[in-house]
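Let's practice the habit of predicting before peeking. Look at the sequence and jot down your guess about where helices and strands might fall. Then scroll down.
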Amino acid sequence: MSFEMVRLDRASAEPLYQQLYRQIRAELESGSFDASASRVPSSRVLARTLGISRLTVNQAFSKLLAEGYLQTRERSGIFVADHLPVTFLKAAKAAPAAHTARAPRFAARVSKMTDFRSGRQLDVGIGGPPNVTFVAGLPAVDEFPIDVWERLRAQVLAKKGARLLRYSSSRGDIELRKAIATYLCDFRGANCHPDQIIVVGGMQQAMLICALALINPGEVAWIEDPGFHQARNVLAFVGARMLPRPIDREGLMIGKVSRRNSPRLIFVAPSHQFPLGVTMSLKRRKALIEFAEVRDSYILEDDYNSEFRFDGPPLPCLQGLDHAERVLYAGTMSKILYPSLRLGFLIAPPQLVDTLVKVRALMDQHSPAIDQATLARFITEGFFLSHVKRMRQLYARRRAFFIEQFRKSLGNYFDLEVTPAGLHFVAWLRRKADFPLFMLAREQTGVWPRPISFFCIKARLDPAFVFGFAAWPQAQIEQGLARLAAAANQLKQRGAGNGSSLQIEPFSPAVGAYWPSVTSSSA
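Done guessing? Here is the structure:
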């Protein structure tokens, strides 16, 4: 083999050993030598030739040996392998046959999905800090006690060892189910046994499990309007006939319902309705359970943001009032701990548990056993409750600061609705004509509060935006609001000063146009 053509760039971010490995492998893949007689120079000689350390050469050789490109011969040194893996990688490729371009075929259920976002739009706000987006639903993950979590994780691994590396129960770790049941009964007013709990991969998986198990295509499901857009997506995916139900000051409105429109499943967030922030009244809760019993329906309760109530104690969950076994109760650790943990829970009436576990097992068998065991310790040793208390205090400070800065920066444009709980606000525009201006300001600044129409199906609400605040410290909240306000003021001045107008394509919830495009044009 010849190494004269090797060129190492010391200014490159790619390590030197990786550069050397890559170039030797490329030479081997070229096949332009007699492999049976190709002895590789020693690490000492090659290091001196290339002006690098022997450690760098040995690191490159180690990778090539591990991948089968090189082989050692006793007392002879290192040689090119007799049978290179490249023979498989470089198989002759037939000339591509002419074909007619056509759109890919998808199952009908995919076409029924209602979320038409793609690319950058799906990633907006996902990471939270350092960029201020004000997207709702992002917790302050930088405040999570990672050191405590890692210590508990090491302890459960030391104690349970290889057992945590095997397949686990589709119901979930029994210690975690016991810990969750105790917490929910003591602090959320639930009425459940550990055998009723299924550990799931977050709220979206809980919704999908329930929808697949309980709804046949064409059967009716109720959904809050406006409401959680992922619930709408799940119901569309399983082929449910969705009936959006309006929200008033007491929560989801039941009204007069024909037998034909009796729902198989009712999706509701009674503790803190998203996005309007309404808390369902006790009268409405009892009426909803009674309705479900009479109509042979089930209620899927999303206990959204119940831990983060700032005025008064948290309200008991709907499931705790249910003596007819009609409520399935779902929660997630994403907003309390951190989203990438992908752990949540589902409490089901006893007669549904086995079927729901079968559906859950079909999806991904079980959630990571190590994370489940760590979370169980995190809860039982008191770290969970102390973390919730600390985060409630932190969010209360950020909430008060956001209200103050919002009214200072954007009070001329919006009326901010302040509800007793939750990690977001709804800001209602005082002038409908300013809606296109803020849609364009979002594009220009990357500060990305969502229009409330994003969450609507048939509801026709006044223009408003939903602002999350929890994920960003006070300095970033102030900067983000100021940046959005400055962009809006500049756009307004430009529109008033040079005769240009801002236009926005009409929003159409019926066709799922969640992300209307905004343009600036001259009159």
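How did you do? Residues 277 and 419 are 6 Å apart (CA to CA).
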